[in-house]
Design goal:
Length: about 200
């Protein structure tokens, strides 16, 4: 008999996630995650950064080239733009925890030593990696989070995530601002959304 279940269905970070411990233990465990094939070509796991009890959690898609090299989220051009937008919206760096839905950089490369080009993670990798951001959310317990959804951006949503009520403010991705034709307009939109999050914090 031929099984219809491909081994790829089994990709998950679950066995690597510690049952106990804080953010430091989680970060250490994530460094050794082999839950999906993305760890093979990437340099390192890029875990979240920020205060343990930050009031806002920002969740990006996945690390980019710079993040992969430095091992920290949002340190490249998108990160610089995000820092500026946060400051303008009045969100202190100490109030923000920054992370990604997928923790390893996915890319294509025409030849060795050629530029590595970002490739969007698939649903399979997002699902496999899901236990990491879920645990970060549980440990950081932010008062609100910013998510990458464009349709309902700039409003406070109440949603149940991993069994907990969370307040979300969806916004545009800083990388999309960098690519936008009307870059200034897109940037103003990001700042306005972050101001909504800042006000929601009270
Ligand atoms: N884009 C992301 O989604 N995450 C990063 O860390 C950097 C760029
Ligand atoms: Fe583990 Fe996520 Fe990296 Fe895949 S992308 S190996 S699930 S940390």
């Amino acid at each position: 008999m031929v099984s219809t279940k491909s081994p790829e269905d089994a990709y998950t970070a679950e066995p690597f996630v510690p049952g106990r411990g804080g953010l430091a233990a989680l970060r250490k465990a994530a460094a050794g995650c082999r839950g999906c094939p993305l760890h093979r070509d990437a340099t390192q796991t890029v875990f979240g950064e920020g205060a343990v009890h930050a009031r806002v959690m920002l969740v990006g898609e996945q690390p980019g080239d710079q993040e992969d090299r430095q091992g920290k989220p949002f340190v490249g051009p998108a990160g610089k733009l995000l820092d500026r937008a946060l400051a303008e919206a009045g969100i202190e760096p100490a109030d923000a925890y920054v992370t990604n839905a997928v923790k390893h950089f996915k890319f294509t490369q025409a030849e060795p030593r050629k530029r590595r080009i970002h490739k969007a993670p698939g649903l399979r990798e997002m699902t496999a990696c899901g236990p990491w951001p879920a645990k970060e959310l549980e440990l950081v317990e932010p008062d609100g989070s910013s998510f990458r959804v464009t349709q309902v951006r700039g409003t406070v949503l109440e949603e149940e995530i991993h069994g907990r009520r969370e307040r979300l403010v969806p916004t545009v991705h800083p990388s999309a601002v960098l690519r936008a034709e009307d870059r200034e307009g897109a940037y103003r939109g990001l700042v306005t959304d972050l101001e909504v999050a800042a006000r929601a914090l009270g």
